[in-house]
Amino acid sequence: MLATLVLSLEAEAGMDVILVGSSELSAPPSPKLGRDLIAYEVKVNQRNIEDICLCCGSFQVHTQHPLFEGGMCTSCKDKFLGALFLYDDDGYLSYCSICCSGETLLICENPDCTRCYCFECVDTLVSPGTSEKVQAMSNWVCFLCLPFSRSGLLRRRRKWRARLKAFCDRESESPLEMYKTVPVWKREPVRVLSLFGDIKRELTSLGFLGTSCGPGRLKHLDDVTNVVRRDVEEWGPFDLVYGSTPPLGHTCYHPPGWYLFQFHRLLQYARPPPGSPRPFFWMFVDNLVLGTDDQATATRFLETEPVTIQDLSGRALQDAVHVWSNVPAVRSKHAALGPQEELSLLVQDRQRMGPYSQSSGPARLVKSCFLPLREYFKYFSTELSSSL
Ligand SMILES: [Zn+2]
Ligand SMILES: [Zn+2]
Ligand SMILES: [Zn+2]
User: Fold this and answer.
1) What is the domain count for the chain?
2) Which residue range or ranges hold the PHD-type domain (predicted)?
3) pTM for the full model?
4) How far apart, in whole angstroms, are the C-alpha atoms of residue 361 and residue 356?
5) How far is ligand 1, taken at its centre, from the CA of residue 42, in Å?
6) What per-residue string of b and e applies to 76-89 under the rule 16 or more CB within 10 Å gives b?
7) Which of 143, 242, 300, 325 would bridge with 194, disulfide CB 3.0–4.6 Å?
8) How many whole angstroms from 237 Cα to the centroid of ligand 3?
9) Tens digit of pLDDT for each residue in 45-87?
10) Distance 259 CA to ligand 1 centre (A)
11) Which ligand has the nearest atom to the CA of 117?
């Protein structure tokens, strides 16, 4: 912690020197197009940075950047919303936290942070050459984690978590309300209720259910016929309710629609009261055994459209699931569809044979969908990259 802080302060000092003393930044010689213009416009032309898109340099500002002082144009806003909670398999956000693109990314080394920044943003908004300096540092923490809010032109907004939530609620077309992300020191272990399908292995390998430092807990139920509201309230409170149609190879005594109805029933018992700010997530996964009518019912009851998540290893469709969920980014991550005909064949197969044929769990396919929960709950060190 101390080492981080010292380095950060050094970084700040270094940046301040560049900011104040460098003639390069205070009077850029000949502004080129695009983002190189930002420093020139702000420093020389005294343009307010809120009137420039921080992501692309455009003057056609649509809204404010939720994390840093500066504007945002319409197309960058769309890109930002789409990539907001997209995680790579290594557990880091896939895109730059400022511009939501970027090929080469600098990774925040605060173990509780998952953010990345592209070279271009850091070099144009902090100061030229900063990306190189950051790379040379052994322990760099990012602009949202640093104790001070200002690095060159980059200024962290006050109350950025609340602003991010407001930004998503306002700008997003999805009807799901977003929860405010939780600061690291306030994150608690996650409490999970999992119905029918079990996600213990997936959550453990992502670090949500550790064995040391106060692990999250998971209650798994296969038969919920006699479960009443009082039971769920006694076992709870829960932060995540997961349910799925039975994994293939499981014996099951109910028609596929039964799992949906039971999931929906218990979900109502587990929900925090309306208007509660407590982050509460749910996910229902169908192994492609629900018929078209049941799927439509699920969409109506769960008040969200499903996404299809496919396992395309070996370029052939191996497996797929339909997912209804309010976990951020489930939708954007899997919006792109693979081969439709193959999927419908798989659906026919699955529905003909029922969920009894092979042995495979739907949970495996949705594992990476749980990564955004790291913004809300405590997690512990993992062997993430090897296990995904
Ligand atoms: Zn833009
Ligand atoms: Zn960037
Ligand atoms: Zn960070």
Assistant:
1) 2
2) 41-173
3) 0.76
4) 12
5) 16
6) bbbbbbbbbbbbbe
7) 242
8) 30
9) 999 999 999 999 999 999 999 999 999 999 999 999 888 888 8
10) 45
11) 2
